Amino acid sequence: MPHPPVHSPTILCTVDVVLLTLTADGLQVALLVRDRAPHAGALALPGGFVRPTEDSGTRDAAARMLREKTGLHSPYLEQLATFSGPDRDPRGWSVSVVYYALVPPMAPDDGAPAAVEWHPVDRLPPLPFDHAEIVRQALARVRSKSQYSSLPVHLCGERFTLPQLKLVYEAVLGERVNQVSFRRRMDELGMLEPMVGETVGGAHRPAQVWRVKEAFRGELSLSERVLAGRD
Amino acid sequence: MPHPPVHSPTILCTVDVVLLTLTADGLQVALLVRDRAPHAGALALPGGFVRPTEDSGTRDAAARMLREKTGLHSPYLEQLATFSGPDRDPRGWSVSVVYYALVPPMAPDDGAPAAVEWHPVDRLPPLPFDHAEIVRQALARVRSKSQYSSLPVHLCGERFTLPQLKLVYEAVLGERVNQVSFRRRMDELGMLEPMVGETVGGAHRPAQVWRVKEAFRGELSLSERVLAGRD
DNA sequence: CTAATAGTGTCTATAAGACAGTATACT
DNA sequence: AGTATACTGTCTTATAGACACTATTAG
After folding, report:
1. Among all strands, which nt has the closest C1' to B230 (CA)?
2. What domains, with CATH codes, occur in chain A?
């Protein structure tokens, strides 16, 4: 049986994850202090080697990386792209399959190891490898997909109000969203259901609480049209 | 210096290419007869092992694969996704970074080795590995991107008429395109320039010949809106 | 002149945005 | 009652599609 070119130098096969959340300070990306060379001590994306004995695929490896390194489970985990080349990792020719994940903002000690540092995506520290470029592409993807899909709901908790969700879209897209159109679209998508009777709101008229319908949980709703048109 | 887990079984790192063209019989995908195990003799996507000593990245490997196996150079070559797992290749745990390419229909003996077989995408023979799924995803991507970008121009030759280009969009999208809207959009994109004086057309009014402007060649024009609305 | 395709002008339908109104809480 | 926010009704504007008209060629 013919075999791969064993005479060739080994290719390092890794997975990296761009884990994003949204706080009052905008989109944040999870960074970890690397505990080993190369770049020991530096802040970098969670990642590591694929383990053929454990992982059933790179997606599985990415989920494992999240679990082991951040203590998180993200229901939304999607492949971004694969980065490769002889120079991106000083250890040798490497291939990194990159995933991105979106999670709701966490309570301060919500099981996440203290090692996780959240950094605003527009004020990142210098990152090792090609991680800066990877984050840039992840952001572009998230912003692009948010135009015509329900992606941003993964940045909300399980229950949310439409004004809250609108703010999330605005934060991700970086521009104002038309209130009337936004509500029309969310209605047309048919993806949300009101928690009847449940409202939240402090000093003024309380807002209806919604959640994603069972059938739509875990996957995205795609729209033919732009979901969040400008105001 | 810490090293990758050398005790782990090797991960096979490969590249596959979904090469598409458009003929009167619709979208066609390039298949090659495999000359070695596994699946020797079967029709499969062009692909092979990444060669760290030769390739500067997986994109480069994909371009090499195209060149070596089909004799073609495709100006449009984009990463589709990466497929991985223990079972997709009988030789072991593998990662395949898949690219897709679009080329104009070729003259019968335009340098392509005889080994290249073009098959209509909607009537493919059984394919080995996970190549059927890969082709499916490539088609979905191409159709999706054609909605709002100039992608289909890569299926035309260097010069084309607007009626021809409209037919290409219709073939890719699988639905009729509104003539007036189509011309409006192509005009607004500002990507095409007329070859003044050049027209083609047989028995009736000849059509203006166009080409992609220098500045837009090699890259896509993206539109905020749907490029090819229904008729 | 006819036929057939290329290309345009313009009306209509649809969808998005603006804006102002009503609704409902807390003070 | 006042005020601030939630939500809605409706007018205006922008964009897409339908349709018919003109343009240009061959025969």
Report:
1. D17
2. 12-146 (3.90.79.10), 149-216 (1.10.10.10)
